[in-house]
Amino acid sequence: MSARWELIRALGAVAGDPADARAVLRALGLEPCDGASHAEAFVLNCPPYASVYLGAEGGLGGDAADRVAGFWRAIGLTPAEPDHLTSVFGLYARLGEAGLGHARSALFWEHVWPWVPGYLAAVADLGIGPLSAWAELTRQMLEAERDSLPPGTLPLALREAPPALGGDENLGELLDALVTPVRSGIVLTRRALAAGADQAGAGHRIGERRFTLRAMLEQEPERTLAWLTAEADRWSALHSGPGRHAGPAPGDPVRQWWVARARATAAALHRATSGCEPGR
Q1: Is residue 160's pLDDT more than 90?
Q2: Secondary structure of the chain in the HEC alphabet?
Q3: pLDDT digits (tens, 9 = 90+) for 118-138
Q4: What are phi and psi of 66, to 5 degrees?
Q5: pLDDT digit string, tens, across residues 169-228
Q6: Which of 119, 167, 183, 216 is the Cys-Cys partner for 202 at CB 3.0 to 4.6 Å?
């Protein structure tokens, strides 16, 4: 049983210190990644914080981070980065070792499962070999944990999420939603935007993602909207889970929520593409 918790703790450590990541990847029989690749994944494209993926602003901190911190406080702990993947996995393993099944289940359904599967899909999307393999191994571990726990309900972060795109947003509102995963159901990394700019024939302006996306929409609105629509469709399939392109597994309200959110974005973008340029 101890090997189970050590594996979870080790998988979480990969998203933390680069030196720890190299050691863990070697121990898992995976190719180690260099510091530049580690930074590309965990600093520049996929910050490993729950608040980025569950927060209404799509950034660090805020109510999403406070919710995770509240869980830590409830069990008498105060970590420096409560919503960091390394911290959350470490706590999950600690609760498992202590035999605190109820607390471990609550942590999983409220603060792990709502964001980590989508996060791992975004890391795998980067195409960084060792980290794609890590993401797949971590996904398999998470699904095994999910199957070992009593069924969960829709977590507070998703119940209180801001509304999905409706198709009547102005340009500023659209940009805010698209770079906020809990609003759009998609994870637009810097690397994805660079690929999207190439596909849309728009110049890729390096900078904050919202700025980059605005430039794409101003230069090639129809092609950029078409690319974004395809991305939303692709993410609805990713949220369904491996081999489930027709829809998420029955009885999994979290996957169902994310699929519905991505589909709502695809529908809103399709309506915008069928019109003309998004409102300003």
Answers
A1: yes
A2: CHHHHHHHHHHHHCCCCHHHHHHHHHHCCCCCCCHHHHHHHHHHHCCCEHHHHHCCCCCCCHHHHHHHHHHHHHCCCCCCCCCEHHHHHHHHHHHHHCCCHHHHHHHHHHHHCCCHHHHHHHHHHCCCHHHHHHHHHHHHHHHHHHHHCCCCCCCHHHHCCCCCCCCCCEHHHHHHHHCCHHHHCCCCCHHHHHHHHHHHCCCCCCCCHHHHHHHHHHHCHHHHHHHHHHHHHHHHHHHHCCCCCCCCCCCCHHHHHHHHHHHHHHHHHHHHHHCCCCEC
A3: 999 999 999 999 999 999 999
A4: -65, -35
A5: 899 999 999 999 999 999 999 999 999 999 988 876 677 899 999 999 999 999 999 999
A6: 216
Cα(200)–Cα(217) distance, integer angstroms: 9
Residue ranges of domains in the chain, CATH in brackets = 2-156 (1.10.3480.10), 162-274 (no CATH)
Sign of the Cα torsion 121, 38, 65, 99 reads positive
* Mean pLDDT along residues 39-50: 97
pLDDT at residue number 1: 59
